[in-house]
């Protein structure tokens, strides 16, 4: 599985309260959540994010509450993947459950860079700078889960 996209950059400790502010948790509609995604950290995010973009962040991305709304808002906004130096464990798991690829990478990525992430071979290549590095490749079961769209769809297909 490969993803190529343009980087939208954030820093360290991006918590779920800024990914999707609590005032919007009265809905579970992905489109409505996407319309308010990241607005407390970047008011322009929802209007400038494009399908296939990749969020790059520093350490501890997704810290805070365990709300599943946060990865749903990111995925519904069109983001293809989140790449960060590290993730809060519950955010990482919620992302996998809803089919949003997430990957830990310690290399330098800048706003607007074009990046290719190869989950099968475990590589990240910055197509803008030519630099890159290695990541832990996704195991086959995780790639299948992401390709299915979410955990429930995956298990429904597996149990037919």
Explain how this protein is built.
With 160 residues, the protein is α/β, with parallel strands linked by helices. It has helices spanning 16-19, 30-35, 45-48, 69-76, 89-97, 140-148, 151-158, and strands spanning 2-9, 54-57, 81-84, 102-104, 114-118, 123-126, 132-134. It has seven helices and seven strands, in the order E-H-H-H-E-H-E-H-E-E-E-E-H-H. A seven-stranded mixed β-sheet has the order 4-3-2-1-5-6-7. The mean pLDDT is 90.
Count the domains. Answer: 1
Helix content: 25-40%
Radius of gyration: 15 Å
Widest sheet, order of strands? 4-3-2-1-5-6-7
Question: What is the CATH architecture annotation?
Answer: Alpha-Beta Barrel
User: Structural class of the secondary structure composition?
Assistant: alpha/beta
> Can you count the beta strands?
7
Report, as a whole number of angstroms, the end-to-end distance: 24 Å
The average pLDDT value, as a whole number, equals 90
Beta strand %: 15-25%
The CATH superfamily turns out to be: Aconitase, domain 4
State the CATH topology: Aconitase, domain 4
General shape: globular
Largest sheet descriptor: 7 strands, mixed
